[in-house]
Design goal:
Blueprint lengths: L4 E10 L19 E5 L2 E9 L2
Antiparallel strand pairs: 1-3, 2-3
Length: 51
Amino acid sequence: MAEETGLFVYGIVPSDVEPTPDAPGVGDPPGEVTAVRHGELAALVSEVPLE
C-alpha cells in the first residue's frame, strides 16, 4: 500500500518568491520546499508523510 502524503505549509508569500535549493524542509528525510502559485500569491510547501 502506498504511503499517504500531505503538504506542510510554511507560509504565504508574493508569487515572485523562489525557495532556495538548500531551504530545509520538515520530515526525515526533509521534503523539498516548493512554491504553489496563484495570482499574486504563493504558498511555500513541502510534501510530508501522514503518520
